[in-house]
Write a structure and sequence with these properties.
Blueprint: E1 3-6, H1 14-25, E2 30-32, E3 39-42, H2 47-57, E4 66-68, H3 72-78, H4 83-92, E5 97-102, E6 118-122, H5 127-136, E7 140-144, H6 157-164, E8 170-173, E9 183-186, E10 193-196
Parallel strand pairs: 1-8, 2-8, 4-6, 5-9
Antiparallel strand pairs: 2-3, 3-7, 4-7, 5-6, 9-10
Helix pairs in contact: 1-5
Amino acid sequence: MAEFLSMHPDQPQPRLIRQAAEIARGGGLLAIPTDSAYALAGHIGDAALLDRIRRIRGVDERHHFTLMCRDLSEIATYAKVDNAQYRLLKAATPGSYTFILEGTKELPRRVLHPKRKTIGLRVPNHPLVLALLRELDEPMLTSTLILPSESEPLCDAEDIRERLDKLVDLIIEAGGCGAQMTTVINLAEGAPQLVREGCGPLAPFGLG
């Protein structure tokens, strides 16, 4: 049965943030609200956690996981970023974007796309998530919480509790949450390529 924590969306209680971080450090799988929809999240290198996310999502090893980072400097630690890519990232972060980039050797191979060696990265614009990332002092591996038979991501904590109570270790509730997925931009192959249009505007990339 999952733990359930209610937090303030803009000023999350430090005690509850520390509690959530401890669950993540212990290999727990979290369902967290973000500036888009809810996401499944946990420790980067945990192989069992990867398998749990894949089972819930109904995806295979070719699924692009997303590394949720505190800031641009953290992205540059885990992804290969040239000057042009950095300028694009700086213009669009924090925000509801996921960027596909080539991963660095700081990442376990199992979290990368098996052929392209790429991964999704993003800096969320959500105080609660940023507080959790600061407490952890490292990124979290995440995937949008969308179930295999559905086209829309989950966005309500009580609904998640009812449906995934035995499949995750912690559900965080923080009031309203968006119901759209992030905009996904591939920056790994030269000019920006739109992979998925979501709640992040396309104008900064000349794709609108």
